[in-house]
Write a structure and sequence with these properties.
single chain; about 100 residues; mainly alpha; about 90% helix; elongated
Length: about 100
């Protein structure tokens, strides 16, 4: 769905907004990879939770810009945003209990 969103954003929005969307996407992927590494390798659970929180934060402008490009694709991307937020709360809960 993110690929479809990227295509629609690049076709519908201005160049600065496309760059903003792509930058938020690249940074969200980076923070998601940081979460995976710190969760599974050194088991630095709080750092992993904060990385996932950054991912959730970075996907908000992506979602807003996707809605601006096409509300239907934005609506289809909304469950991903919800999932990332839920995963963040679970990550902090897991870190607090371990």
């Amino acid at each position: 769905m993110l690929g479809i969103s990227a295509v629609k954003v690049s076709q519908s929005l201005t160049r600065p907004l496309v760059i903003l969307w792509l930058s938020a996407f690249a940074l969200s992927v980076t923070t998601a990879l940081l979460w995976a590494y710190h969760f599974y390798v050194p088991h630095n659970l709080y750092f992993a939770a904060y990385a996932l929180g950054a991912t959730a934060t970075l996907t908000i402008p992506m979602l807003a810009l996707t809605y601006r490009a096409d509300w239907k694709i934005g609506a289809l991307l909304t469950p991903y945003q919800i999932w990332v937020i839920v995963a963040t709360t679970l990550a902090f809960g897991y870190a607090a209990r371990n």
